[in-house]
């Protein structure tokens, strides 16, 4: 069976977004093999100093830098964030979903839930250490 051209075109888009988009001129912006699903982090700026820091621009203003954050680009994290967003928005139109997700508190709840899940799994994997 041969895939139709429209399916190939769509699959290419999915792979570019959900995989390591080696065709991107900025790849890798964080680390080789990163998942590019969240090219623009939905939690930006998270203001969590475990993941980034405020830096000073040339004009003296501050901007949040997550240059050294790898968390959102890990496959298991990227997929879990998507799963949480889809669960929250499953009965909404796209415009309603965007409106809901435009609320910083809603996004931070998703972020915290995913962080806690992976903290717990990490503890489980290390015998609770």
Question: What's the layout of helices and strands?
Answer:
Elements (H helix, E strand, L loop, with lengths): L4 H14 L34 E4 L5 E4 L9 H15 L4 H8 L2 H22 L4
Antiparallel strand pairs: 1-2
Largest sheet: 2 strands, antiparallel
Strand arrangement within the widest β-sheet reads: 1-2
- Shape label: globular
In N-to-C order, the SSE pattern is: HEEHHH
Structural class: mainly alpha
Strand content: 5-15%
CA gyration radius, whole angstroms: 17 Å
SS summary, helix count: 4
**How many separate domains make up the residues?**
1
Q: Roughly what percent helix? A: 40-55%
Average pLDDT, rounded to a whole number, is 88
Q: State the low-pLDDT regions, or none.
A: 125-129
Protein name: Cysteine-rich small domain protein
InterPro entries: Zf-like (IPR007212)
Domain Cysteine-rich small: 17-89
How would you characterize the overall build of this protein?
The structure is a single chain. The chain has 129 residues and is mainly α. It has one domain (13-125). The chain is 46% helix and 6% strand. The chain has helices at residues 5-18, 75-89, 94-101, 104-125; strands at residues 53-56, 62-65. Strands 1-2 form a two-stranded antiparallel sheet. Strand 1 (53-56) and strand 2 form a beta hairpin. The termini are far apart. The relative contact order is 0.10.
